[in-house]
């Protein structure tokens, strides 16, 4: 139990799927009915954390248990970066996956959690290949690009996915002596970089996150090479969450079929309000959290 | 075209959600001496129409069923899976979808494709913390003395087997693999001892239908894929 095989294996079962942020058992049921492959249980979606400010922490275990009781799909929950006791608590209530997330306020500005010490698998955010491989070396069994959560603006998600993909392409064309230098440049463990170069992809599943608000956004991230998507505020901050949730699920399956995408993008009601990502962004840029 | 050119076997892999790419990777390594073999990711009715056989991968069965319904695939998949002449293999979520009955489903239940006379319990072992790996004895495979790595992730449990279901034709059932009883959740382990019930079956074949509650697609071992093609697709009998 708790082998890397079953940890990364669960992430492989989520591929081609949508993981949706939910704050109540009722929203979790809507997500399950829409075809979400997992839900992320949290107290406030990123757009609200941004708007309300303050320290964002792990959710109340009682609220997470209510969501676990309401659905049969895997339930994930977030802990603060470096807060290993929040992770111990989530493991104790039988959560299926932990997101060590920059969306919550970091508890440690130097260290991430030693994720090898847990039976429950972890997903972590990244902006480039070096950050992804540092997290995998700490025991993460799934990676997501960070994007900029709670903005409804896909530009950072695209930037991070393109960065990871371009780093992988560069590594794949390198001779071994070049890889040693590139590992140093990326701040990545050499053995994981070598494995990535051999596989021509990350050695685990990689989802996209942070700013996905429409079916077209989701399909864009899939065409850029991710394995599935996280949608946070984009669903329950939109005009018609049921319709939009279903449409984004369909878009991740049929990401390469513009005809189907045109059909499912029609008549979805209002998308969430998007924010410009600059130095005035309320709550600041979360993607910079992580070391 | 000469009449003795063997027909290309097209193995469809249902690609609505889940670990379909992993199945395709393994199939791409397999070679048959008798027939050319190709695989096809199935996302639309037009894709399904080209397939001689189908693999339903691991993933989330609720997601696969609801995407199937919204893509206009549900009735076609039921028809394909319930046709005794069509070879179909379901792994984990695929096993649930291929079962005639299932328990532990989401509120309001979910659609199943049917085709296999078994009753399964979804998430039979518990949450992800109860996921495990164990070496399995699978005597029907090539190199039978070499065990097969069973990766069980939020796996279903086969609760009962109906020999003759789902059609009136009686179909031979072959138990292909079992887990050691020590892997079962404590309550089922106890129930099995008192009531003669058997919850240890993790791979079985009924005619051309095959289910595994674990994930051969997560290993580098292609012997179960080879088994499916030989026994279900080509219909070769076991060599004694």
Structural commentary:
The complex is a heterodimer of chains A (291) and B (240). Chain A contains 13 helices and 8 strands. Chain A has 291 residues and is of the alpha/beta class. Chain A has helices at 4-14, 25-34, 46-52, 61-70, 84-92, 129-137, 155-172, 176-186, 190-199, 215-223, 233-236, 241-253, 258-264, and strands spanning 18-22, 38-41, 75-80, 97-101, 122-126, 142-145, 205-207, 229-231. Chain A starts with a helix and ends in a 27-residue tail after the last helix. Chain A has one domain: Aldolase class I (TIM Barrel). Helix content of chain B is 25%, strand content 26%. Chain B has 7 helices and 12 strands. Chain B is globular, with a radius of gyration of 17 Å. In chain B, the strands form 3 sheets. A 7-stranded mixed sheet of chain B has the order 2-1-3-4-12-11-10. Chains A and B meet through helix 1, helix 2 and helix 12 of A and helix 1 and helix 3 of B. Chain A: Pathway: Cofactor biosynthesis; pyridoxal 5'-phosphate biosynthesis. Chain A: The active site is at 78 (schiff-base intermediate with d-ribose 5-phosphate).
Reported for the largest beta sheet of chain A, the result is: 8 strands, parallel
How many individual helices of chain B?
Answer: 7
- Show the largest interface: A-B, 42 and 42 residues
Overall, the morphology of chain A is: globular
Total strands of chain A: the figure is: 8
Strand fraction band of chain A? 5-15%
Class by helix and strand content of chain B?
A: alpha/beta
Q: What coarse outline of chain B follows from CA principal-axis ratios?
A: globular
pLDDT under 50 segments of chain A (min length 5)? none
């Amino acid at each position: 139990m708790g082998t890397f095989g079953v940890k990364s294996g669960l992430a492989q079962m989520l591929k081609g799927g949508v993981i949706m942020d939910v704050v109540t058992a009722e929203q979790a049921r809507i997500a399950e009915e829409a075809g979400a492959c997992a839900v992320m249980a949290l107290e406030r979606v990123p757009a609200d954390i941004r708007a309300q400010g303050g320290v964002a922490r792990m959710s109340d275990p009682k609220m997470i248990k209510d969501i676990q009781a309401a659905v049969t799909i895997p339930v994930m929950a977030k802990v603060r970066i470096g807060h290993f006791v929040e992770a111990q608590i989530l493991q104790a209530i039988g959560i299926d996956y932990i997101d060590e997330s920059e969306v919550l306020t970091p508890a440690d500005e130097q260290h991430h959690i030693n994720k090898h010490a847990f039976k429950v698998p972890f997903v972590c955010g990244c902006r480039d290949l070096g950050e992804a491989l540092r997290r995998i070396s700490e025991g993460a069994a799934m990676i997501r690009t960070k994007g900029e959560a709670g903005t409804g603006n896909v530009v950072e998600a695209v930037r991070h996915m393109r960065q990871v993909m371009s780093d992988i392409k560069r590594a794949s064309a390198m001779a071994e002596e070049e890889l040693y230098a590139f590992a140093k440049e990326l701040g990545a463990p050499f053995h994981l970089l070598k494995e990535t170069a051999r596989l021509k992809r990350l050695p685990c599943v990689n989802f996209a996150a942070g700013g996905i608000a429409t079916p077209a956004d989701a399909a864009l991230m899939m065409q850029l090479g991710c394995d599935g998507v996280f949608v946070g505020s984009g669903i329950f901050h939109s005009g018609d969450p049921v319709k939009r949730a279903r449409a984004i699920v369909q878009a991740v399956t049929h990401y390469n079929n513009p005809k189907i995408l045109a059909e499912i993008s029609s008549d979805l009601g209002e998308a969430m309000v998007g924010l410009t990502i600059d130095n005035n962004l309320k709550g600041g840029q979360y993607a910079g959290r992580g070391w | 075209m000469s009449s003795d050119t063997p027909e290309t076997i097209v193995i469809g892999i249902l690609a609505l959600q889940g670990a379909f790419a992993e199945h395709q990777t393994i199939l791409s390594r397999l070679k048959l001496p008798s027939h050319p073999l190709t695989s096809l990711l199935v996302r639309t009715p037009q894709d399904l129409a080209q397939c001689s056989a189908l693999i339903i991968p691991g993933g989330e069965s609720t997601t696969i069923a609801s995407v199937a319904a919204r893509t206009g695939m549900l009735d076609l998949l039921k028809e394909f899976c319930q046709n005794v002449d069509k070879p179909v293999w379901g792994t984990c979520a695929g096993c649930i979808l291929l079962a005639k009955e299932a328990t532990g489903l989401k509120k309001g239940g979910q659609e199943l494709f049917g085709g296999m006379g078994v009753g399964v319990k979804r998430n039979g072992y518990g949450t992800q913390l109860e996921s495990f790996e164990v070496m399995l004895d699978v005597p029907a495979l090539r190199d039978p003395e070499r065990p097969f790595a069973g990766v069980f992730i939020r796996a279903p449990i086969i609760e009962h087997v109906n020999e003759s279901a789902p059609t009136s034709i009686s179909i031979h059932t072959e138990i292909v693999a079992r887990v050691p009883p020590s892997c079962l959740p404590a309550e089922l382990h106890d129930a099995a001892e008192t009531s003669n019930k058997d919850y240890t079956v993790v791979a079985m074949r009924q005619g051309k239908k095959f289910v595994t509650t674990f994930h051969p697609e997560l290993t580098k071992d292609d012997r179960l894929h080879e088994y499916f093609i030989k026994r279900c697709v080509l219909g070769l009998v076991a060599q004694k």
